[in-house]
Amino acid sequence: MMTNCQTIRPRLSEFVDDALDPQTRAAVDAHLAACAACSALVDDLSRLRSAARRLGPIDPPERLWIDVDRQVRQDRAIAPNEAAQTSDIGAVWQWIGLAAALVVVTLGVYAVQHRNAPQPTADISHANQTSCNAGATGSVETVEQELRQAEEHYDKAIAELEAVTRNGNASLDPDVARTLQKNLATINQAISESRAALDAHPESEPARDSLFEALRKKVGVLQATVTLMNEMRNGNQDGAARAAAGIGRKSGD
Amino acid sequence: MVGRTDAEDLLQEIFLTAHRKLASYKGESSLGTWLFRLAANMCVDHLRRQSTRVAQVTDPLDDDTRGSDTREGSVLGAIDRLDLERALETLAPRSRIVFVLHDVEGFEHREIGDMLGITDGTSKSQLHKARMRLREALAERSVSQRA
User: Fold this and answer.
1) Distance (Å, rounded) from C-alpha B65 to C-alpha B61?
2) Nearest Cα to B43, choosing from B6, B80, B83, B5?
3) Contacts of B27 in chain A (CB under 8 A)
4) What is the percent of chain A where pLDDT is above 90?
5) Does residue B54 belong to the interface with chain A, where contact is any CB pair within 8 Å?
6) Residue A47: its chain B contacts at CB < 8 A?
7) What's the count of helices (H) and strands (E) in chain B, helices before strands?
8) For chain B, which terminus, N or C, has the lower number of CB atoms within 10 Å?
9) Domain B78-147 class?
10) What 8-state DSSP symbol labels residue A235?
11) pLDDT class for A170, splitting at 50, 70, 90?
């Protein structure tokens, strides 16, 4: 049984993530009821978690894909045999799926660096807004502006993923396709409700968190769908089964 | 600190490396796992090189051993986005990747473990250390801003 701060504290991140088993959670709850220092730490970790969720993904500029496309073509021109092998494995749809998946990981690094770097031309306004934010923290206008920008990023990612899944929908098992549609309908409803709540109360942090949570879920479901289609086309039944289970799990996170 | 140009270069480099190595993909793991692992490793390598170049954020260890929870009581108020981004730069590369993948991007520890080739437990531990370090960095920043 965990009873002191030293043993409790390493588990507090999992507590905040609601990832502890019931017994351990009960022990942590009991400790927190009696320990102001650990309770304060939980408050800080929760704030940190909420703030991180609001950072959201960032889309790379369109010209990046043009550069990648050009370099891939150059690669193929230099090594035609290798390119032929590659095209056997990876058709166009596969690269679209790869793009969707890879952007998420890479922008983890990108997201942190993007806003702090010197911003040329079109991004100057954003940099200025962010700088102003440091001096006018919490103003409704600034928060709304950041919210809109984050929403745009999500919306764009969702639109791209939806395009990928639409193209591959015919290859999905009818049951899986129905589950997918049902889950997406539920998430879409949550997005609409959260947006309505946020419109009514722009300063509401729970409404904002709820909206981003719903958007994040939708991205997760669509990513799982892309993975499922990739696995099915590769003939990987185990992988497809895992991905299909992931569609349900992502919607219920 | 590395700027936007470097970040875009890295994204391009990852895509090209993935394209060049796709022929060597044997299907031993799912394509997504293979790709995530490649991208995550390249991101970690990139951040390590960056840390080596920039003395003030250098941390020679993958495990972020700073951020011991010596501060008592709540030390964070409303967290400014810019402050959080600055604080993230102080994390060791692997801690930073784990934090971003979990807390910003919403991946699960199992998925992060697959990407980085670490166990779920290591991912959880890295995340906790990252959060504690960020708490410390944000508290320090808050104190210096008040001074």
Assistant:
1) 8
2) B6
3) 234, 236
4) 17
5) no
6) 76, 78-79
7) 6, 0
8) C
9) mainly alpha
10) T
11) low
pLDDT above 90 for B61:
no
CA distance B11 to chain A (A): 6
Cβ neighbours, 10 Å, residue A201: 12
B25-55 confidence digits (pLDDT tens): 777 777 777 877 888 888 888 877 776 655 4
Could you identify the residue written with the tokens 């920008």? A149
Question: What are the residue boundaries of the structural domains of chain B, listed by start?
Answer: 1-65, 78-147
Asked if A57 and B89 come within 8 Å (Cβ–Cβ), the reply is: no
Per-residue pLDDT, B75: 67
Structure-block tokens of residue B22: 């796709």
Inter-axis angle of helices B81-88 and A124-135, nearest 10: 100
Q: Do A111 and B104 touch (CB under 8 A)?
A: yes
With an 8 Å Cβ cutoff, is B20 touching chain A?
Answer: yes
CB contact under 8 A, B11 and A110: yes
Same fold, B1-65 and B78-147: no
By the 10 Å C-beta count (0-12 exposed, 13-18 middle, 19+ buried), B31 is classed as buried
When pLDDT is averaged across residues A155-161 and rounded to a whole number, the result is 72
Q: What is the mean pLDDT of residues B99-110?
A: 89
Q: Mind listing the pLDDT tens digit for each residue in A20-53?
A: 999 999 999 999 999 999 999 999 999 999 899 8
**Best CATH choice for the domain B1-65 from the list 3.40.1280.10, 1.10.1740.10, 3.40.50.261, 1.10.760.10:** 1.10.1740.10
User: Cβ of A53 and B47 within 8 Å?
Assistant: no
DSSP element (H, E) containing B32: helix B31-53
Residue A146 structure tokens = 């950041």
Give the whole-angstrom CA distance, residue A130 versus residue A124.
10
Under an 8 A CB cutoff, do A13 and B31 touch? no
Return the minimum-mean-pLDDT range out of A157-166, B52-61, B93-102: B52-61
Which has more pLDDT, B136 or A167? B136
Please determine, for residue A132, whether its predicted confidence score (pLDDT) is greater than 50: no
